[in-house]
Amino acid sequence: MASISIEGIKKEFSGNRVLEDLSLHIPDGAFYTLLGPSGCGKTTLLRCIAGFHEIDAGRLLFDEDDMTRVPTHRRDIGMVFQDYALFPDKTVFDNVAYGLRARGVSKPEIGQRVGQALESVGLSTLAERYPAQMSGGQRQRVALARALVIRPRVLLMDEPLSNLDAKMRTQMREVILDLVQEAHITTVFVTHDQEEALAMSDKIALMDRGRIAQIGTPEDLYGMPVNAYVADFIGSANTLPVSIESADPALSGKARYFLGGRLLEGVRGDARLDGKNGILVARPEELALTPADSDAPNAVPGAIVRRQYLGFKTSYRVRLHDGSEIRVDLSADRRSVDFHPGDPVQVLFPAQSRIIAA
Amino acid sequence: MDFVKAKWWPWGVLTVISLLILAFFVLYPLGVLFNNSVRDETGALSLAGFAQLLDNSMFLQAFRNTLVLGVSVTTLSVLIGAPLAYLVARYEFPMKNLVAVLPVVTIVIPEVIVGQSWLLILGNNGLLTNLMERIGIELPSFYGWNGLIFSMTLVYYTYIYLGVLAALRGFDGQLEEAGLSLGSSPLATKLRVLAPLMLPAVAVNALVVFSLVVGNFVLATLLGSRVPLLSVMTYNEFINEMGGSPLLQSAMSVVSITIVGIVLFLQKRVVERKLYTMTPGRAPQAARVRSGAAMLFTGVVGGIIFLSLLPLVVVFIAAFTETSGPVMRWGVWSLTNLMRIFRSAPEPVFNSLIFASLATLTGVVFAVLASYLIVKKRNGLTHLLDYIVIMPLTISGTVMGIALVQTFNTGWLVLAGTSSIMVLCYTVRRLPFAVRNASSTLFNIPDSIEEASISLGVSPLMSFFKVVLPVMKASIVSAAILMWVTTIAELAATIVVYTGGLETMPIAIFRQIDGGRLGLASAYGAAMITVILAPIIAAIKLFRINLFSNQ
Question: What number of helices (H) and strands (E) belong to chain A?
Answer without folding.
Answer: 8, 20
